[in-house]
Amino acid sequence: MAYPSLLFKLLFYTALGAITTLAFLPNYDALPPLVNISDLLNHAVAFIVLFMLLKMAHPKLVLKQSISFLIAYALWIEAVQYFLPTRFASWSDVLADSVGILIGYAFYKLFYYFNTKRLQKS
Questions:
Q1: Which residue ranges make up each domain of the chain?
Q2: DSSP secondary-structure letter at 29?
Q3: Dihedral angle over CA of 50, 51, 54, 59, nearest 10
Q4: Exposed, middle or buried, 23 (CB in 10 Å: 0-12/13-18/19+)?
Q5: pTM for this predicted structure
Q6: What one-character DSSP code corresponds to residue 37?
Q7: 34 pLDDT more than 70
Q8: What is the DSSP secondary structure assignment for residue 13, as one 8-state letter?
Q9: pLDDT of the residue at 44
């Protein structure tokens, strides 16, 4: 069981690094069209993925800790962007991040529910 946890930790921290890098790029509009669909949609999807990977990488974290960490991360990104000359901070981004966290929680619970059901059948 240690190997999947190690894999999810690697995936989580890689995603965290990639999202941080994208958040601080000077010219976000220069991203390829596949990535530059909608800023708010990108935020929500990023935090859906981050929540699910965080819960799989660190399963002992309680829900409050997971949500608190990701909200603090979202606020940190916006605080840094406030001081960058090529970026700007936005409360709508934090709201989209929060919605992503909630959706990620719902997906995680569904995944856990169906995985538990599958294991009970075997």
A1: 2-121
A2: G
A3: -160
A4: buried
A5: 0.85
A6: S
A7: no
A8: H
A9: 96
Residues 6+ apart with CB under 8 A from 37: none
To which H or E segment does residue 103 belong? helix 91-121
pLDDT at 1 over 60: no
Residue type, 88: F
- Average pLDDT on 109-120 reads 78
The Cα-based distances of 34 to 38, 82, 84 in angstroms read: 10, 26, 25
Show contacts of 24-31: CB within 8 Å, 24+ apart: 24/80, 24/81, 24/84, 24/87, 26/84, 26/86, 26/87, 27/86, 28/87
Total residues found in the chain within this entry: 122
- Under a CB-based contact definition with an 8 Å cutoff, are residues 46 and 19 in contact? yes
